[in-house]
Amino acid sequence: MKDTPLSNCERDFLLKAIEEKKRLDGRQTYDYRNIKITFGTDYGCCFVDLGKTRVMAQVSCELVAPKETRPNEGILFFNIELSPMASPAFEPGRQSELSVKLNRQLERCFRNSKCIDTESLCVVSGEKVWQIRVDVHTLNHDGNLMDAASIAAITALCHFRRPDVSIQGEEITVVSAQHSTVCLIYCTSNLDPCEREERVMDGLLMIAMNKHREICSIQSSGGIMLLKEQVLRCSKIASVKVSEITELISKALENDKKARKAGERCGFAESMPQERITALKMDETPVEMKNVTEKAEDIVKKYEAPPQSVPSPLVPAPGVGQVGQGQQNSWGLEEEDGESEEEEEMVVEDQPKNKLDQGECCK
Amino acid sequence: MTHFYTKCFLIEQPDHFMIKIRVSNWQTVCKSTDISLREFGCEQNLLSRPDGSASFIQGDTSVLAGMYGPAEVKVSKEIYDRATLEVLIQPKVGLPSVRERSQEQCVRETCEASLLSFLHPRSSLTLILQVVHNDGSLLSCLLNAACMALMDAGLPMSCLFCGVTCAINSDGQIITDPTVAQEKESRAILTFAIDSTDHKVLMSSTQGSFSVYELQQCIAVCQKASEKIFLFYRDSVQRRYSKTL
Questions:
Q1: Taking burial as the number of CB atoms within 10 A of a residue's CB, which of A191, A198, A254, B97 is the most buried?
Q2: Structural domain that includes position A78
Q3: Which residues of chain B neighbour A48 with C-beta distances below 8 Å?
């Protein structure tokens, strides 16, 4: 499905507004949208809402043989699914340019920054290691998928409980995430672009930083020329924002831990807002079953029993079976020659089919 | 695959006698007591990009549905007099596989039966369903979320539909809306899509072995349960368009 193209006057309006330091939704230049983090029912599932952009991450693990070049290390696998739900421009067949770019950035950001200690994922060196798979599903695209995806991935990884398998038994331990790495996106001069602003931008600067103020990765795309001061300024702002976001993530994890300990039900169901007019909940309801048995009996009685007898097969010649007689051609064709030919054909075709029928009857 | 267990009909005896045999067996085989549906929840219009979106929750099973349409369709997929409906089911972990394809077919057949697709020729309707958590009766949750998303998108439909799953456990008891644990212990799982006007079956998808009588009883049970679900649909839409909360 094609996306609606951006009109020229919209583009001009947005560019002019950015020049005057104004943004469509009233934010300041370096303001982030509201981030909301919720967790699912099982460990390792989390939802991130960045304004209207919505993303879901799920972590799962599996025991596999390790890579030959690295027999002592576990495997981390990231997969961002650009679901067609997020935007009409995303096609279900994968490998669009954007999806490749996002996957690559996420991998670089997490794998190279070593935020997960892969050696701790090893169970039997050279034979069995844990493969941790992070699936990020984009649910709604309103700009800045990269940030939302990275926040979701790191939160899900921190939330995940990996079963610890030893030869004797099983215990549960937390996957050790050494430090949270969060990506931040700038576009031209704005932080956290929304979808319209993203379409208008010429270039992008992405900085991935952790809370120790170490830059994990920087990427600039779009071919914009950046001055040294601009890059430094961006990284300073990034460090402030990253610490805010990291604090938010740890607070969300704490809340969830407390809720689980207290035995409350956690999950998507619980986090559904009750006060909204578009949401409704109904409790467990019993269903009346008064007439069910009688109704079912009636229906079965009404319908006739299936045909009692199946015509028995004839054997006109050894190796040939025939069940039933061929019927008169009822297609209403007037040529007699045509009819007789067709009858012969039908008889010839009947025989191999009848053989099959006979075979089935014998079974 | 379903196996139908039928009594042996090749005995040459008059019909009424056979029916009598069946009656005595029926009453001992199926008991239907304590049928209840899990907690339901629904939220509409929660995503800004799709034309219609809904999330449907049954107990712990939850599904998110998004709907785009009517929109431009690729020439290879266009149908000259109707809208082309495409259903995509995304599982939580991994890529979509054959199981998702068969579920997609079930959902698509049901939607096509109830949508008035003749009103939008040469257009495409795309329905995307994301499994958020699976705790049993997934197919019926997918159907319910699909119906709510279609309603939210404002697509013309001749009737609403809902999905109900029931499971027959080894004692012959019928359980509606089973959880994953209940599904594992049951010998048959049946899912029906029921329409709102005549309460007839639009689609059925079954797994396991059961008798003809059990099938009819399950259908009757699901029809009764669907009344509750349609009441829920009505309540949620009424709440949405009401002036007071």
A1: A191
A2: 27-270
A3: none
At B3, the pLDDT band (50, 70, 90 cuts) reads: very low
Instruction: Answer yes or no: is pLDDT of A108 > 80.
Output: yes
**Residues of B in Cβ contact (< 8 Å) with A57:** none
* Six token digits for residue A298: 């009636």
Range 139-168 of A in CB contact (< 8 A) with B: 139-142
Q: Does B159 touch chain A (CB under 8 A)?
A: no
Higher pLDDT, B83 or A169: B83
> Which residues in A lie closer than 8 A to residue B172 (C-beta atoms)?
none
Q: What is the DSSP string of B119-141?
A: GSTT-EEEEEEEEEE-SS-HHHH
Find the CATH number of the domain harbouring A256. Answer: 3.30.230.70
Domain for residue A101, yes or no?
yes
Per the CB < 8 A criterion, the answer to whether A49 and A57 are in contact is no
In a domain, A295, yes or no: no
Residues of A in contact with B30 (CB under 8 A): 293
Judged by CB atoms within 8 Å, which residues 20-59 of B form the interface with A? 22-23, 26-27, 30, 32-50, 53, 55, 57, 59
Distance separating alpha carbons of residues B23 and B32, to the nearest angstrom: 16
In a domain, A227, yes or no: yes
Residue A235 token pair: 């990284």
The residue with tokens 């994890």 is A253
Mutation target to probe the A interface, by most A beta carbons within 10 A, among B24, B27, B46, B245 is B46
Residue B11 CA to residue B7 CA, distance in Å, equals 10
Min distance B114 CA to chain A CA atoms (Å): 22
3-state SS assignment for residue A175: coil
Chain A residues 4-43 within an 8 A CB cutoff of chain B: 40-42
| Gyration radius of chain A's alpha carbons | 32
What does the block give as tokens for B38? Answer: 């899990």
Per-residue pLDDT tens over the stretch B11-35 = 343 433 333 333 333 333 344 456 7
Which pTM does this prediction carry? 0.79
> Residue B44 and residue A58: Cβ atoms within 8 Å?
no
B64 vs A: CB within 8 A: yes
Tell which A residues from 323 to 362 touch B, by Cβ distance under 8 Å: none
Q: How many domains does chain A have?
A: 1
Contacts of B26 in chain A (CB under 8 A): 297
| A140 occurs within a structural domain | yes
Q: Please state which CATH number belongs to domain B2-244.
A: 3.30.230.70
Note the pLDDT of residue A18: 84
Q: Please tell me if residue B226 touches chain A, with a CB cutoff of 8 Å.
A: no
